[in-house]
Amino acid sequence: MSYGSGPTPYPANQPPYGAPQQFGAPGLAPDIAPLPGASFGEAIKRYFQRYAQFRGYASRSEYWWPWLMNFVISCAFSLFMIIPILSAMSTVIEAAQNGDPTVTPVYPSSVYIASGISSLYSLAVLLPNLSSLVRRLHDTGKSGLWFFILLVPVAGPIWLLVLLASESRPDLYRPEWS
After folding, report:
1. 19-23, 56-60, 85-89, 128-132: which has the minimum mean pLDDT?
2. Across the chain, what does the average pLDDT equal?
3. Which of 43, 97, 111, 157 would you call most buried, defined as having the most Cβ atoms within 10 angstroms of its Cβ?
4. Cβ-contact 53, 131 below 8 angstroms
5. Which among 29, 23, 25 has a CA at the least distance from the CA of 57?
6. Torsions phi, psi for 45 (to 5 deg)
7. Burial environment of residue 11 by CB neighbours within 10 A (0 to 12, 13 to 18, 19 or more)
8. H or E element: which one contains 77?
9. What does the pLDDT read at residue 102?
10. Do 88 and 107 contact (CB within 8 A), yes or no?
């Protein structure tokens, strides 16, 4: 046997010692990787691009920017419903104080329209909200089944909020482990 004719120094498909990504968690594919520090526009874009993608990870900014957008839109719809309802109720209260208790509130059609649009919007973002929440849980190192901690009275929602606000640790969760 001559020098250099022996087996190769590294087994097949194994990188040499010290090569990048040899130790620790393997790199994530771009379609499932989180985007830390995403701007509002980037986060909203990824929110709707991945509307039904339950695998992968979502950074804090990818989760909280769309949450803020949905909160503001819900508040706007609520204003279009609450102000006319309060106006109609004040009319009924005044009538009752003047001795006519049989007056029923009459709501303008804007209340029904805003309620319908709000319901349709809530239904449209239900799936993106759930998938974003599951990906955020994956990014914190937890399974998506941690969503069901909401069923625990009082402590469950608080614990879920703490999980959603915690640091990213995608190295703690791998889909193949579950």
Report:
1. 19-23
2. 85
3. 43
4. yes
5. 29
6. -60, -45
7. exposed
8. helix 60-97
9. 83
10. yes
Distance, CA of 51 to CA of 66 (rounded, Å): 11
- Asked if residue 177 has pLDDT above 70, the reply is no
Q: pLDDT tens, 74-126?
A: 999 999 899 999 999 998 999 888 888 888 888 888 899 999 999 999 999 99
Residue 158 sits at the vertex; the CA angle it makes with 81 and 138, to the nearest 5 degrees, is 100
Query: Between the CA of residue 116 and those of 77, 108, 112, 143, what are the distances in Å?
Result: 10, 13, 6, 34
CA–CA distance, 168 with 177 (Å, rounded to integer): 18
pLDDT at 46 over 80: yes
Could you give the CA distance from residue 112 to residue 129 in angstroms, rounded to a whole number? 25
Which range, of 15-24, 97-106, 165-174, averages the lowest pLDDT? Answer: 15-24
CB 141 within 8 A of CB 171: yes
Which tokens in the block code for residue 10? 């590294």
Q: Angle, nearest 10°, between helix axes 109-124 and 60-97? A: 160
Q: What is the pTM of this model?
A: 0.75
The first and second tokens of residue 63, run together, are 């989760």
Measure the CA dihedral 50/54/56/57, to 10°: 80
Residue with tokens 């001559």: 2
